[in-house]
């Protein structure tokens, strides 16, 4: 009986496999990716809320049109080029369709509360108008073929935008957005313009571009991290543009010509005393003090250095007692002042003079 049941199960499985079309998602496979039971958005049913099917070689996921209660869906590392099924998921909040074969994006009816979307590693060449996606907070479009930023004007909730490894040549279309994290690395950008109105910006990655000036990063009072590795910044004077950023903590200028400037490290640290990390290295308190003492020493440091130089100079001079003459009778209170560094014997010498010439001197 066991063998018959086993044979029957294998036949049933074989029949199911024969009924499947390669790359086409069926309900049995979809069921394997369902997890996280919970109440539906209206609160009337107990349903699966999440679907995870990465790396299944899927090209057709139209069967998901019937999964209307999904709130989170991950379909990364497949061969999908059509996501129209999302039009039937009004409660979807997170969508990961990275590493697929999409040539367009958001080609579906907008879920009202869609917040996080990952379309990185696809074949998207143009950005579309996203006015209908006003709840969108995170949009990743890294590793695509986009040449121009557009369609984001009404995304008033967007706080994170990723456009690295694309074909951008300029920063445009980001006016007055609440973006806090911006990644524009590995493009062909030459100027840091178009960021002026991003007052909420906290982290910006502009590495591996063609930028030669930091102008455009000024007046971002919330900016904490700037990555400009592998660009063309050459002059120390460019640092003045970010000198007044009060919260700047991390700056990366590795692989820029500026590092060939003499005393680059100390100069950068002195101009940006608020930073804690420069070029992937921690900046210590001692280095900050050293930078200040060399570039703009306080009066006490100047006095100490001056005193050190004078002591050194005097030690090199021949020592002798200078001739002196007591004042005339018109000056009844003559005074002799002995000057010298600490612990050089001034007091002992003074007392000795007072003992030996007690008719002329008293110790004051």
TrEMBL record:
Question: Where are the annotated segments for Disordered?
Answer: 1-23
Keyword annotations of the record: Leucine-rich repeat, Repeat
Please list the residue ranges that the record marks as compositionally biased, kind Acidic residues: 1-15
| UniProt xrefs under InterPro entries | Leu-rich_rpt, LRR_dom_sf, SDS22/Internalin_LRR
Q: Which domain of life is it from?
A: Eukaryota
Q: Which Pfam families match?
A: LRR_8 (PF13855), LRR_9 (PF14580)
SUPFAM superfamilies, sorted? L domain-like
Give the protein name, as stated in the record.
Answer: LRGUK protein
The species this protein was found in: Dryoscopus gambensis
């Amino acid at each position: 009986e066991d063998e018959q049941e086993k044979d029957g199960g294998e036949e049933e499985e074989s029949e199911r496999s024969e009924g499947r079309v390669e790359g086409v998602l069926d309900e049995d496979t979809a069921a394997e990716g369902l997890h996280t039971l919970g109440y539906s958005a209206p609160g009337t049913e107990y349903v699966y809320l999440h679907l995870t099917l990465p790396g299944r070689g899927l090209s057709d996921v139209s069967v998901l049109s019937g999964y209307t209660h999904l709130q989170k869906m991950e379909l990364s590392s497949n061969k999908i080029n059509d996501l129209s099924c999302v039009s039937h998921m009004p409660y979807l909040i997170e969508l990961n369709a990275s590493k697929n074969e999409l040539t367009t994006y958001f080609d579906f009816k907008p879920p009202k509360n869609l917040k996080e979307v990952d379309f990185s590693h696809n074949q998207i060449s143009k950005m579309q108008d996203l006015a209908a996606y006003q709840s969108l907070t995170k949009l990743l479009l890294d590793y695509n073929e986009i040449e121009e930023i557009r369609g984001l004007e009404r995304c008033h909730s967007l706080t994170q935008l990723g456009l690295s490894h694309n074909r951008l040549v300029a920063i445009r279309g980001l006016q007055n957005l609440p973006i806090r994290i911006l990644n524009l690395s590995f493009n062909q950008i030459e100027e840091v313009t178009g960021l002026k109105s991003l007052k909420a910006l906290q982290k910006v990655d502009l590495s591996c571009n063609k930028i030669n000036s930091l102008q455009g990063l000024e007046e971002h009072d919330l900016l904490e991290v700037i990555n400009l590795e592998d660009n063309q910044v050459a002059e120390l004077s460019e640092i003045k543009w970010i000198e007044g950023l009060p919260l700047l903590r991390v700056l990366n200028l590795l692989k820029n010509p500026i590092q060939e400037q003499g005393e680059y490290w100390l100069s950068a640290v002195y101009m940006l005393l608020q930073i804690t990390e420069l070029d992937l290295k921690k900046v210590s308190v001692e280095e900050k003090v050293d930078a200040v003492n060399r570039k703009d020493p306080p009066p006490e440091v100047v006095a100490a250095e001056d005193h050190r130089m004078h002591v050194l100079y005097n030690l090199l001079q021949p020592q002798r007692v200078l001739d002196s003459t007591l004042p005339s009778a018109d000056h009844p209170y003559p005074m002799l002042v002995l000057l010298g560094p600490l612990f050089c014997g001034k007091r002992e010498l003074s007392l000795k003079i007072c003992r030996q010439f007690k008719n002329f001197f008293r110790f004051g």
